[in-house]
Design a protein that fits this description.
Blueprint (H helix, E strand, L loop, with lengths): L1 E4 L4 E6 L6 E7 L2 E10 L3 H14 L4 E5 L3 E7 L2 H6 L10 H22 L1 H17 L8 H9 L12 H19 L4 H6 L7 H13 L8
Parallel strand pairs: 1-5
Antiparallel strand pairs: 2-3, 3-4, 4-6, 5-6
Helix pairs in contact: 3-4, 3-6, 4-5, 4-6
């Protein structure tokens, strides 16, 4: 629909009516758009491909925003729909991102069990369950559902429809808990080794996304 520069638009955050999170909203000529995906400067082709797919193949009204350090794709939304809760589910993150985060979660859980014992692993499971339930992660309404996440094969099973904001929160909390259990951040390298099970392209997609997301600096 539109390819715009940063000076063409106004971007502000609004409070989600049903979640404890801020929603970036782009305004252009009286129209409002919600952030769908972010790409770094080297991913211009991927950003344009997503934008074209959404506009040409799926009939979505979208903006491709070009900035010096990144590209971002925004989908048209009415603020009254968000206020009414109609858009509460947002847009799920790409499947490889969700799969990778689940692999990291499982790797951290196994690491705690192997190095600290079953009792500590059980406490970690309760900690994670509390976080996912508190932050209302979709398809996680009980501790039993969290147990399933820790044992399922994310590469062969349908993964939950989580948004990128959910994934960022999960990565932040996993890093915080990992440091609490191990006393340092050395666990990140061991956990990231679990991504070797992913197809190279999907793994690259996650690594690129992680590098430009807020928790990325924690997992370097």
């Amino acid at each position: 629909m539109f390819i715009l520069k940063r000076q063409d638009v106004d971007i502000k955050n609004i409070q989600h009516p049903k979640k404890d999170q801020q929603i970036p909203i782009l305004s252009y000529q009286g129209q409002t758009f919600r952030l769908l995906s972010v790409f770094n400067a080297a991913q211009e082709e991927e950003a344009r491909a997503l934008w074209r797919d959404l506009t040409d193949n799926r009939g979505k009204a979208c903006v491709l925003l070009e900035e010096p350090e990144r590209f971002s794709v925004w989908g048209k939304v009415r603020l009254e729909d968000i206020d009414a809760g109609d858009d509460a589910q947002g847009t799920p993150a790409a499947q490889p991102l969700i799969q990778a985060c689940l692999l990291l979660l499982q790797a951290l859980y196994i690491d705690i069990e192997d190095l600290l014992g079953g009792k500590q692993a059980g406490l970690f499971e309760k900690d994670i369950a509390g976080i996912l339930i508190q932050w209302k992660f979709p398809q996680v309404g009980s501790e039993k559902a969290v147990s399933t996440l820790l044992t399922m094969d994310p590469l062969a099973t349908q993964v939950p429809a989580w948004e990128e904001l959910h994934l960022q929160k999960l990565l932040e909390e996993m890093h915080r808990l990992g440091k609490n259990y191990f006393g340092n951040a050395n666990f990140t390298e061991r956990a990231l080794d679990a991504l070797e099970d992913m197809p190279a392209g999907d793994r690259g997609t996650f690594v690129n996304w992680l590098g430009q997301s807020p928790p990325g600096k924690l997992w370097k």
